[in-house]
């Protein structure tokens, strides 16, 4: 009886008190409610409302206009290209450091840099790439004056599809390294030894044992990187302005009123982005769960 009273916070007749350890989560819960759940609900509700507050599907139908469909398609292609390249390069770097012959002291600085670089985006990242690969950037001028290589003549433009894709790689590759590193650590030495005893070569071990085990993690990270790039707004706006017709820029124009001044169409655009990124994150969570079962 006394233990029951301790849990409920006192004798019968008094209101139960929450344990003090629940207080630690209150700031986080308030932050999520104010800056994630409530804005998301406002977007979802606004996507189905007229300026007068009445229910309508006109905003959703507006997403199927040729201009908006083209913007979504370009955004999907940029997101997939940066995610695929980020997975490929990041997996190679992580494998070389964790399972390759590189010195072990490289791992700590690499993971530290990856943790910082994976969150480096927005205006600072756009400025860094403009100062490096822009029309008068450091690398661009050096190649033109010292080596006679003109990137503009070769067709490279930072304010383009591949320019934005390369910019996104700056945070996509480190994110891949951070996520795939635990999966590489989870490959047990016994699996390689067993494959070697059975006469398998290194290539056969990777093709028949290691890669199938890592595949859910790789595909899950690909989905996560896709969602990460698809939802990147500040970097795209700061780098390309209105020169590239992608969803974040179109959304920014609708909300700010630079084009049609239709905030509810902007809500519908944001709702479409939520659906796309939600599907990608759902795929990541499902594949991540499969990968964790393998590692156990």
From TrEMBL:
Its main location: membrane. The keyword Ribosomal protein does not apply. The chain crosses the membrane at residues 20-45, 57-74, 80-102, 123-142, 162-184, 205-226, 232-253, 265-287. It is found in: Cell membrane. It comes from the Bacteria. The keyword Membrane applies. It is a multi-pass membrane protein. InterPro entries: MetI-like, MetI-like_sf. Keywords: Cell membrane, Membrane, Transmembrane, Transmembrane helix, Transport. Pfam families: BPD_transp_1. SUPFAM superfamilies: MetI-like. PANTHER family: INNER MEMBRANE ABC TRANSPORTER PERMEASE PROTEIN YDCU-RELATED, INNER MEMBRANE ABC TRANSPORTER PERMEASE PROTEIN YDCU-RELATED-RELATED. Belongs to the binding-protein-dependent transport system permease family. CysTW subfamily. This is ABC transporter permease subunit. It comes from Peteryoungia desertarenae.
């Amino acid at each position: 009886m006394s233990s029951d009273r301790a849990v409920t916070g006192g004798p019968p007749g008094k209101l139960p008190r929450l344990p003090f350890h629940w207080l630690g989560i209150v700031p986080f819960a308030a932050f999520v409610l104010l800056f994630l759940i409530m804005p998301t609900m406002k977007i979802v509700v606004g996507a189905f409302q007229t300026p007068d507050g009445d229910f309508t599907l006109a905003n959703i139908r507006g997403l199927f206009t040729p201009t908006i469909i083209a913007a979504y398609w370009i955004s999907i292609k940029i997101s997939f290209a940066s995610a695929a390249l980020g997975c490929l390069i990041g997996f190679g770097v992580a494998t070389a450091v964790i399972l390759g012959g590189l010195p072990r002291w490289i791992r700590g600085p690499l993971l530290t840099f990856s943790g910082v670089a994976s969150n480096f985006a927005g205006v600072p990242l756009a400025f860094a790439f403009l100062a490096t690969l822009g029309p008068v950037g450091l690398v661009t001028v050096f190649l033109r004056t010292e080596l006679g290589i003109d990137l503009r003549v070769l067709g490279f433009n930072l304010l383009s599809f591949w320019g934005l894709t390369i910019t996104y790689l700056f945070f996509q590759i480190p994110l891949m390294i951070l996520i795939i590193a635990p999966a590489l650590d989870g490959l047990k030495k016994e699996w390689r030894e067993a494959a070697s005893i059975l006469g398998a070569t290194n290539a056969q071990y990777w093709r028949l044992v290691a890669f199938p085990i890592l595949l859910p993690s790789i595909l899950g990270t690909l989905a996560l990187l896709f969602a990460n790039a698809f939802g990147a707004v500040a970097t795209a706006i700061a780098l390309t302005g209105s020169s590239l017709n992608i969803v974040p820029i179109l959304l920014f124009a609708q909300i700010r009123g630079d084009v049609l001044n239709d905030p509810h169409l902007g809500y519908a655009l944001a709702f479409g982005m939520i659906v796309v990124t939600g599907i990608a994150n759902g795929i990541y969570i499902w594949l991540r769960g499969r990968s964790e079962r393998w590692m156990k």
